Every structure is written in structure tokens, then in C-alpha cells.
Amino acid sequence: RARAVRDAPPPPAPGRRVGRTLDEDEAKALLEAYGLRAPRRRAAADRAAAHAALDELGAPVVVKVLDARVVHKTDVGGVHVGVHDHAALDAALDAIDAIPGGPGGPGGRRYLVEELAPAGTELLVGALRDPVHGPVVLLAPGGVAAELAADPVLRLAPLSAERAAEMARALPAAVLAGFRGAPPVDPDALAGVLRAVGDLVCDHADLAEVDLNPVRWTRDGPVVLDAVVLAEEGEHDGER
Asked: What is the reported pLDDT for 179?
């Protein structure tokens, strides 16, 4: 059975604050503290570090702009998948450097270089702090399976084991069985992911939104491919 979460240090105690909107590397590190799994990655402060990361991780890799202000990275040309050699990496870095509003102008961007995850079923997992009801956890099919569900599944956090399992089993049967030949989704393991995300938003008083889109369910279990963690304070005014 696929494991929902990996062994990890105890998460922060309730009442902690994230303090600010996190960049993707920071967001994934926070999720890893709650036992979730993300691809191996390296944050690169310059082009030389990005090339060193390619050598360390091995091709192919995914290369992204690393900037907390850039939430919708794909929309601005900030995500490059399947980068297979140093020439392709230079082309990806050139495109990222050309994104408007980079710190210090061209060449001032930071980059995230990470392993390419195996194929699987994509899910959207998130949480938000509703002004009336408080923390809410969200689950929906993602990617090509998004057409199978008209509305996301929403539940108040924190989630009990029973409520999280019920939430996971509310996904369309075709998704749980493995949509279009993808690995099946273990609802009990998915319940662990949902509880971790619910605990994360409950533990941090200033956390406004968590968006894990997608979480890819592979043969080895769930992997968080993209992560956005938004803080309530210091409104987010960057590229969207």
C-alpha cells in the first residue's frame, strides 16, 4: 500500500505563523515537515548553481522560477519540464530571466531545479481560511481527470481520520481506480494527506491559503509537484 506521508520531524506547534507568503521551495519544506513528499530539488541563486543542480539531480529535470510573488508560474513562462541537458537548461533560464519584474532585472531571478516525477493521477488538494467557518480543506480531481467532478469536496479542518477517509472516497470511482491507466489512488493514504494539510492550516494562524496543484499519485504514492502557501498579512501583489 502506498504511504500518504513519510517519516518526518514533528510539525510546528499550533499557534505558529508563517509570517509571509512562501516561495515554492519554502512551501515544500513546510509540507515535508508535515510528512508530505515532494520531488528532490535544489534552489539555485544563480545560473551556475542551476547547472550544478542539473548535474547533481540528473536529467531530465523540471526548472521553475523561484519567486513567492509569482503564483501562476506556467502563465508567465516560468515552468520548463523535461530539461535534458545544459543547453536546454540555458534556454529555460533565458526564458525565466525574461519574466517581467524580476529582482535586479535580467539575471536577478532565482530558480528551482527538481527531479521529474513519474506519471500518475493528478489531484488538487488545498486549504483556505474561510472568514465565517474557519479552516477548510478542499479535494478535487486534477489534470485530465478534472472533467469527472463538477465540484470539489470541502470539509472543515481539523479532519478526523473518519472524515478524511470519507472525503477521499468521495472522489469519482474512476479516479480512485486509476484514471486512463494511471496508478490507483489509495483512499486511506489520501486521507493522511488531507489530514496533514488540514493540520497545517490549523497550526498557523496567519495562513490564508494552501494550494497543492497538482499532487500526483504515482506507484510510490503521492508527490506534491507544485505548492503555494499564502499568508494573510502582506497582501500578495506580484505576478499572477
From this structure: 85
Could you report the per-residue pLDDT of 108-143, keeping only the tens digit for each? 799 999 999 999 999 999 999 999 999 999 999 987
Of the candidates 123, 142, 113, 154, the residue with the CA atom closest to the CA atom of residue 2: 123
Domains in the chain, please, with CATH?
A: 24-38+118-231 (3.30.470.20), 41-115 (3.30.1490.20)
Alpha-carbon dihedral angle through residues 201, 205, 210, 216, given to the nearest 10 degrees: -30
Residue type at 225 in one-letter notation: L
Which DSSP category does 232 fall into? Answer: S
H/E element holding 98?
A: none
d(C-alpha 240, C-alpha 226), whole Å: 15
